[in-house]
Amino acid sequence: MFLCCDTQACDVANRDVPEVLELDESAATLRMLIELLHLPPPPPSLRLSAPQTRRTGQPTSPYCGSHVPYPLLPDMLRLVDKYDLSEPLRRSLHSHLRANACIHPMSVYAFATTHGLDDFAAEASAYLLHPPLSTYTKNQIATLPAATAYHALVRLHSYRVNRLKEILLSEDIFPFGYGACPTHQGDTTRIWNERRLLLATQIEAATDLAEEMRVLLQQFMSCKTCEKACRAAVAMLEVWLFS
Fold first, then answer.
1. Does residue 106 lie in a domain region?
2. Quick one: which of 50, 123, 143, 204 could link to 110 by a disulfide (CB 3.0–4.6 Å)?
3. CA angle, 84 then 88 then 94, to 5°
């Protein structure tokens, strides 16, 4: 749409008049549009090995290096749609949107659900497990396009919490008596059960069960059998959580 008319098709009297394309955009938006046309941002670089876990407070991303800041992306993508810019440019901006999911998860989730980008919404929701939804401000929640988008997050958190409780309460330190310590089995089982029952009442969607139960290792250091059993149980929690 940015091709000007062929001068040969113009009236002879108007050949010396420069052709002007009028766009109803602000100066800042026009500058952004021109930069997209002449200096399109390349896709962000992918990590050589994708991280396998997401720890609370340490969000990870499959992308590395610099990427387009999120506040610029909604306007850029709007211009791509409005002026029907190239598909490679759209894909590049989408990859920048995905790269921002771990930094601005609520904003990316809101944008993705508004525009029907389900894959991007799912990616962003993985980074919305922490902090709890109750900590978000009214204005942050208001960015979501509909109650269904918020309801989906609530269901995700609820499912995650219930599943974590199931995993925790089903993991015994001496499963079916395997590896039981003949000397300390009773005390070790009691300590493990007390800790996991307490933790079960405090679980949030991003709780790291393995890390929370690993604190018991200090109490079992005096017995190699109990220590080994505790390490094995903690390792199983990690397998369940990050497999």
1. no
2. 143
3. 90
**Which residue segment(s) compose the domain that 210 sits in?**
162-241
Residue 212 lies in a domain: yes
| d(C-alpha 1, C-alpha 135), whole Å | 46
Q: Tokens 């980008």 map to which residue? A: 117
Cα gap 35→22, rounded to integer Å: 17
The count of structural domains within the chain is 1
The CA–CA distances, whole Å, from 137 to 66, 133, 222 equal 29, 9, 48
Q: Each residue of 64-88: pLDDT tens digit?
A: 777 899 999 999 999 999 999 999 9
Residues 142-179 pLDDT 10s: 999 999 999 999 999 999 999 999 999 999 999 999 99
CB-based contact 117:95 (threshold 8 Å): no
The answer to whether residue 202 is domain-embedded is: yes
**197 occurs within a structural domain:** yes
DSSP string, 192-209: HHHHHHHHHTT--TT--H
Cα gap 221→227, rounded to integer Å: 6
Is the peptide bond between 131 and the residue preceding it cis, with omega within 30 degrees of 0? yes
The mean pLDDT of 111-124, rounded to a whole number, is 93
Residue 129 has pLDDT above 80, yes or no: yes
Give Cα 188 to chain centroid, integer Å: 38
Q: Which two tokens stand for residue 59?
A: 């969000």
